[in-house]
Design brief:
The protein is an alpha+beta fold. The chain contains 5 helices and 28 strands. Strands 1-28-27-26 form a 4-stranded antiparallel β-sheet, with no helix packed on it. It is found in: Nucleus.
């Protein structure tokens, strides 16, 4: 009996899967009919637009980069053909000349080396020197109530930012000259602590905020950093013109700010002898570098993680952040107040005794010293303060340099081929203290921040000078 019952149960269990199988087969047939109907719908349109859309969507990131690279390469080839008169490649090869492909390869290689700082851009040789070595003065645009202390220019050369001792920051359109007030001195975060002597650092009766002594804009133009008497690094979003972050940490006035090229890594220096690193991607503090024995007055950096600073301890230092070491370059007993990097691993510093020093990475002492680069102006009656080098700027990765003081002119310099010496090209007349300088990447114009007083104090005053932005156009050969 138990064996028969088990057989009946097995029979029933065998019948159920058979019924389910027929139901599933019926559903599959219905699904096949529906799928065949849906497949026929796109074909019935007959316009082929959906097929084109599918092809565009299927383009991968690698294919897109390849397509853009081919487009850029073709553009470079066209420019080279126009520049060389549409020379035929076969004729070039037959005559033993350089072919068009070789010219394009050489141009791309040189541009890559210039972008990475391995090769110096030759710009000084293209500058048209005016007769007599004195150019016509540029355009001065008044904007600030108190002297301009610093200036920065965006990478696209369209917008300049100036800051002043009144704590305000102005945004300028370089081409049209229009200005907008980016932020007021009252917007600054106040530091509730002891004040330092000097009305240029603490809020005065004619201002509602601490003096701004340094500013820098990121490579993409999205962030503006400012710092000064309140010892706080302020970060602004240039699109919304609002402060998005404030980094306290410096124990004294901030005198220099610089973004590492192509990144949002920021370096700040101050009178507290410290070099601080900040990440704007994460909005956080990274590290502090110590080594200077005197107040740090300026900082500059390229795309490498090796900022270079200058100090009143008569030294310039290159910081190897990855190795946690630094190199010391001694300035021969001169207090170094400003710095700018040039192409080919060279940089120039300016001193409060009016001299310029040219440096190379492989030598611990200056390769060239220019004494009295800015002599005292007898007409201004400002005394020795007129000859102090207040600011420096160079064409990005190039050999063209500009220096500013209070002697009534901006001087343009060109580096020699070996980058061990430089010569003066010509002068640009301008009234006032040149406290900030910046070149366009193309070298076609120069902007300067002008003030009635020096950047770091009130040792002299030129009441007839204008506090604002100065623009000088540079004529270049084709």
């Amino acid at each position: 009996m138990p064996l028969k019952k088990s057989r009946k149960r097995g029979a029933k269990q065998a019948e159920v899967p058979a019924k389910k199988k027929r139901a599933v087969e019926k559903e599959d047939k219905d699904d096949e009919i529906l799928e065949s109907d849906s497949d026929e719908e796109p074909v019935s349109g007959g316009d082929g637009e959906d097929d084109e859309d599918d092809d565009e969507v299927q383009e991968s990131a690698t294919e897109r980069r390849l397509r853009l690279a081919k487009s850029i390469l073709q553009q470079v080839k066209n420019e080279e053909n126009v520049h060389h008169g549409d020379e035929d490649e076969d004729e070039d090869d037959a005559q033993g000349l350089v072919s068009s492909d070789d010219r394009v390869a050489t141009r791309l290689k040189n541009e890559m080396m210039e972008a990475r700082g391995y090769r110096q851009r030759q710009v000084a040789c293209k500058v048209v020197i005016p007769s007599g070595g004195i150019a016509e003065t540029g355009t001065t645009r008044r904007g600030h109530a108190r002297p301009v202390t610093c200036l920065t220019l965006t990478s696209d050369d369209t917008t300049a930012y100036t800051a002043s001792k009144d704590g305000a920051v102005f945004k300028w359109d370089v081409e049209s000259g229009t200005k907008t007030k980016f932020c007021y001195g009252g917007d600054y975060m106040k530091y509730d602590g002891p004040n330092y002597p000097g009305s240029f650092a603490e809020p005065g009766p004619s201002s509602n905020g601490y003096a701004v002594l340094s500013c820098a804009v990121s490579s993409d133009g999205n962030f503006l950093a400012t710092g000064g008497g309140d010892r706080v690094v302020h970060i602004y979003d240039t699109r919304s013109q609002k402060q998005i972050q404030a980094f306290p940490g410096h124990k004294d006035m901030i005198t220099g700010l610089k973004f590492r090229d192509g990144t949002n890594q920021l370096f700040s220096v101050g009178l507290d002898r410290a070099v601080k690193m900040w990440s704007l991607d994460d909005m956080m503090y990274l590290d502090t570098l110590f080594g200077h024995q005197g107040e740090i007055m300026g900082v500059d950096c390229d795309n490498k993680e090796r900022p270079i600073t200058v100090s009143r301890d008569h030294t310039s230092r290159m910081w190897k952040v990855a190795d946690e070491t630094h190199l010391v370059f001694r300035g021969g007993g001169y207090s170094l107040d400003c710095i700018t990097l040039m192409g080919g691993g060279a940089w120039v510093t300016g001193s409060d005794n009016g001299s310029l020093q040219l440096w190379q990475q492989m030598k611990k002492k200056p390769t060239m010293l220019v004494k009295g680069a800015h002599g005292e102006s007898e007409e201004s009656g400002l005394g020795a303060a007129a000859g102090w080098v207040q600011s420096l700027a160079a064409v990005k990765g190039g050999d063209l340099l500009a220096s500013g003081a209070g002697d009534g002119c901006i001087r343009l310099w060109g580096l020699e081929r070996d980058s061990t010496s430089m010569k003066e090209l010509y002068e640009v007349p301008v009234r006032g203290f040149v406290n900030g300088l910046a070149f366009a990447r193309s070298g076609e114009f120069l902007v300067a921040g002008i003030g009635q007083e020096p950047r770091m104090g009130r040792w002299a005053r030129d009441a007839k000078a204008r506090n604002g932005l100065f623009v000088h156009r540079i004529e270049l050969k084709e």
